[in-house]
Design brief:
With 492 residues, the chain is an alpha+beta fold. It has helices spanning 45-50, 76-88, 104-114, 132-136, 144-155, 163-168, 184-190, 224-234, 270-283; strands at 11-14, 22-29, 54-59, 93-102, 120-126, 137-138, 141-142, 214-220, 239-246, 253-254, 257-258, 293-297, 302-306, 315-321, 327-328, 335-340, 374-377, 385-399, 403-412, 418-428, 432-445, 450-456, 472-487. Helix 3 (104-114) links the parallel strand 4 (93-102) and strand 5.
Length: 492
């Protein structure tokens, strides 16, 4: 097909046998449409076709076999509009179009929906970023591991063996190997102001999106909060599914953490869930599963439906950081300090990262003994405690130099396993209150377990080191507290 400005976008069309006109499911990818199944295309395309859908997989501008220049999100709204209109008016189309796909493909759906093309009936964005700035930065700090890995390997075509040395370079934007291959990377790293012109164009205006969205993500996905945010802004007939998954794995287990028989996307029939969704909105058939929100509760390791998100019965409870390393309900006094050395940063161990040998809910015990991590630990729980919703650290801090503040929420088992639940970072330029938004989780801390908070100034290479690159002594003062959304139900 050709866009309005004459650029040809390469597309592969899969048609049901027997001819005729069919509803169309469209995916627009920067990862080369010839890789099927491939990155960000987790639905069974053969099954979609067998169900009577025409399926179109298209290379976005400047990627795969498509013409033009790839500019990362920029221009995808207009190209997406043109692609939907093209798909709706082909002789094999009945005029009804749905869109699907993960990550970048999710963003192309939202941008196309923003333009309200005639014929677009529903979308299904999964593990989808919030915007360009939010993709590159968290808490004002570059998401170095994810952004550099994607730019260097996915878009730059460099071998993974180059990544280690590239991550160590300072400043992180100084990557000569990428200047020609991915010229926008340096601009991203050098443009720290979220209000800068660079970040403005490919912005989603949710108020303009009229079609329903089946939004999905995983608790260990680095676009978890962005995806949930899309659902919260869309509402209406949209739906939300959150599983115990990462950005790129959807199995029952993540290394040695097994979430059970029903945890994987295969077990819940991921393609079937999407067929149900599209059959309803493109064909008018009744929904077999009409749950507005479906979440996987870690700890009890079970699926649960909810009326909406956030949960109306979640109560935000402060857990105070004590100078003795305690974490509890009683307000605390005093302070604790640590010295951070950016040339000896706290190494990333699990979490929402693109480190393919170490991601997700990993045991944090290998980091025991570090002098630059403050640990605050609660007493063993007498009964299970459910935490479902947004977690936040509110800390009163001072520092001898420029610094960041990182936080990890950890579930400590009776046998000592220290399972990472979520983590985050915030950059601060003055003493006082610092808020670290650890994002959304759903986890039951079982009886006998302890809730732990780890506080540091680095988590590298997940997050880039502070550009000042100097040692700093950071002091955490009272009042400082961890806010947990506690849910008290008979089944908890």
């Amino acid at each position: 097909m050709f866009t309005r400005d004459g650029v040809e976008l390469a597309s592969t069309v899969y048609l049901p046998s027997g001819g005729g006109r069919h509803p169309v499911l469209l995916a627009r990818t920067p990862y080369d449409r010839r890789q099927v199944p491939g990155p960000a295309l987790r639905l069974d395309l053969d099954r979609l076709v067998e169900a009577g859908y025409a399926v179109v997989v298209q290379d976005v501008r400047g990627t795969g076999e498509s013409g033009g220049e790839f500019r990362f999100f920029t221009g995808e709204a207009e190209d997406g509009y043109d692609a939907v209109r093209w798909a709706a008016t082909q002789p094999w189309s009945d005029g009804n179009v749905g869109m699907f796909g993960d990550s970048y493909l999710g963003y192309t759906q939202l941008l196309a929906a923003r333009e309200r093309p005639e014929g677009l009936r529903a979308i299904a964005p999964s593990v989808t970023p919030a915007g360009l700035y939010e993709t590159v930065y968290s808490g004002g700090v570059p998401n170095l591991n994810v952004v550099l890995t994607v730019c260097a390997i996915v878009f730059g075509g460099l071998p993974p063996t180059e990544l280690g040395a590239m991550m160590e370079r300072l400043p992180p934007g100084d990557q000569p190997l990428l200047d020609d291959l991915v010229p926008f990377y340096r601009a991203w790293m050098e443009t720290t102001d979220p209000a800068a012109e660079l970040w403005r164009e490919p912005v989603i205006d949710h108020s303009r999106i009229e079609v329903p969205a089946l939004v999905s993500t995983g608790w260990h996905d680095y676009f978890r909060d962005a995806s949930i945010g899309h659902y919260e802004r869309l509402r209406g007939d949209s739906r939300l599914i959150v599983g115990p998954w990462t950005h790129f794995t959807q199995d029952r287990a993540i290394f040695d953490r097994d979430y059970g028989d029903r945890a994987s996307q295969a077990a819940i029939d991921w393609t079937g869930i999407h067929l149900d969704w599209f059959d309803h909105w493109l064909r008018g058939e009744p929904l077999r599963d009409d749950a507005r929100v479906r979440i996987f509760v870690m700890g009890t390791d079970e699926w649960r439906t909810e009326r909406d998100w956030p949960l109306l019965d979640a109560r935000r409870v402060p857990y105070h950081l004590g100078e003795d390393g305690s974490l509890g309900a009683a307000p605390a006094a005093g302070s604790r300090e640590f010295t951070s050395d950016p040339y000896d940063p706290v190494p990333t161990l699990g979490g929402a990262v693109m480190m393919f040998d170490a991601f997700g809910p990993l045991d944090q015990r290998p980091l025991d003994g570090r002098h630059d991590v403050l640990r605050y630990v609660g007493e063993p729980l007498e009964r299970p405690l459910e935490v479902t919703g947004e977690v936040e650290l509110v800390a009163t801090v001072s520092s001898t130099g420029p610094s960041d503040l990182t936080a990890k929420l950890v579930d400590v088992y009776p046998d000592g396993r220290a399972e990472l639940i979520t983590d985050a970072v915030a950059r601060f330029d003055r003493d006082g209150e610092v808020r670290v938004r650890l994002g959304a989780i759903s986890n039951v801390f079982r009886a006998g377990h302890r809730i732990r908070l780890d506080v540091a100034a680095t988590n590298f290479p997940k997050y880039a080191r502070h550009p000042a690159v100097e040692k700093a002594t950071v002091t955490v003062h009272a009042p400082s507290y961890l806010v947990l959304p506690v849910v008290e139900r008979a089944s908890a």
